[in-house]
Design goal:
The chain has about 400 residues and is of the alpha/beta class. The chain is built from 17 helices and ten strands. Helix 1 packs across helix 2 and helix 3 runs parallel beside helix 5.
């Protein structure tokens, strides 16, 4: 198993989520999936494993990453780019059905390119404005439904595209996002062959916050919402031992457990990060005890220079929340970072009331509850009630330490 900390993993390197992949595959038999979660949690790796699994069942699967798209036609172009080679590989009968369908549609799709033999086969789109692009997109889908196959379309980073649209069009952006999501929910589902095309949509900035803030939660409710849980401690320990074996590093079970405890929320990425630092330290300080190296490796995770991943947790607040909400959320997080076991709910609420001098206590409480729900859902916080009172604490211990450090003079 390779120590990869950053890019999506596959095959032997994809560890511990086989059951998750099977579950996602089962859901796709009758539902579309919305897979949301913080950065680096393993969404792309899991989605690609799902693509592999459905392909093994004879499905066609394509992946489009729409992070760089700033408008709807960008989305269509991506779809087109990925579809073309797959369409080219379809059997002749399927291609003929598509050509017939193309002739019946007329107009909105400019042409489908067909060459004899091994040549290209693709859909060339006419120019689509914001109004008509949904029709073009539906036409493309109608076209691929002609090929008598099951399809999985994996759309990665959709929330980023939607935020791009809003940022670039302050007048009509929200309306366009609503139209886009409505297209997903209504038009796509209403198509006669819609059961043949399944969608797996994923992303890391809060699509759920976006739709709630703008009163369009209904648009994504038709999708089956899924997340990726952290590993059980046992699985996390096993993964570290597996990595240690591959790199011939003598890491005892106790040592592995120490790392898992220090991370607290054992998502595979943070295990990979810790192991990466341990491996580097080991190569330069081979005579130092493993226990000391583990401590140093965890420290390195929160030091400047290797902390880019944590900056994202901070940035995400201002991307998806209004300025004042983002500042409130920061204040709540700052307070809860002071202690690994977090802060009592009452103290956090008090802070909130203090920050909103012109609001009634009820209003301040509502704001607290709203932000608390976001912080829980986006995996900043967990709840601990073991001491009798309710405490909110950072889930990811290295993130807490980083947060505390950046909030300290
Ligand atoms: N199943 C897994 N087994 C081992 N490592 C994993 C697994 N899933 C994720 N990782 C680790 O997490 C890193 C990020 O994975 P991936 O790119 O799939 O996450 P992501 O949620 O798509 O991230 P981003 O939000 O940045 O796109 C990998 O480089 C790897 O270190
Ligand atoms: Mg990804």
């Amino acid at each position: 198993m390779k120590n990869i900390a950053g890019s999506p993993v596959e095959g032997e390197d994809f560890y511990g989520r086989e059951a998750v992949v099977s579950r996602l595959q089962e859901i796709l038999a009758h539902d579309d999936i919305l897979l949301l979660g913080p950065r680096r949690i393993g969404k792309t790796s899991a989605a690609r494993a799902v693509m592999k699994a459905v392909r093994a069942e004879g499905w066609r699967a394509i992946e489009i990453n729409v992070a760089s798209c700033t408008n709807e036609s960008g989305f269509l172009e991506k779809l087109d780019d990925e579809l073309s080679p797959v369409l080219a590989s379809l059997p002749a009968k399927a291609k003929e059905a598509m050509i017939d369908a193309f002739n019946a549609i007329g107009g909105r799709i400019k042409s489908i390119k067909i060459q004899a033999g091994a040549g290209s086969f693709g859909v060339e789109l006419g120019t689509a404005d914001a109004e008509s692009w949904t029709k073009v997109a539906s036409d493309v889908l109608r076209l691929i439904e002609q090929a008598d196959e099951h399809w999985l379309i994996y759309v990665d980073e959709l929330p980023i595209m939607l935020f791009n649209i809003i940022r670039n069009d302050s007048q009509g952006g929200i309306q366009r996002v609503r139209r886009f999501l409505d297209w997903f929910r209504n038009d796509v589902r209403a198509m006669p062959g819609s059961r043949k095309v399944r969608w797996l949509v994923s992303g890391s900035v809060g699509l759920d916050t976006l739709v709630q803030e703008h009163g369009m939660a209904d648009t994504i409710n038709s999708m089956n919402h899924q997340g990726l849980k952290a590993f059980d401690d046992e699985v996390a320990v096993d993964m570290l031992e597996e990595l240690a074996k591959s790199y011939e590093i003598a890491l005892s079970e106790e040592g592995a457990r120490k790392i898992v405890d220090a991370i607290r929320w054992p998502q595979p990425y943070y295990l990979q990060m810790a192991f990466h630092h341990l491996r580097e330290l080991k190569s330069t300080q081979s005579s130092v005890s493993m226990e000391s190296l583990i401590g140093q490796a965890i420290d390195r995770m929160v030091q400047p220079g290797s902390d880019n991943d944590f900056h994202y947790w901070e940035q995400r607040l201002s991307i998806q929340l209004s300025r004042s909400d983002a500042e409130h959320a920061m204040a709540l997080l700052n307070l809860s970072a002071r202690n690994p076991s977090g802060t009592r709910a009452e103290s956090l609420l008090e802070t909130m009331i203090g920050r909103m001098p012109n609001a009634s206590p009820e209003e301040a409480k509502r704001t607290f509850v709203r932000l608390r729900d976001i912080l829980l859902r986006d995996a900043y916080w967990g709840i601990d009630e073991s001491t009798g009172s309710r405490r909110y604490h950072f889930l990811l211990e290295p993130l807490r330490r980083w947060w505390l450090r950046r909030d300290t003079l």
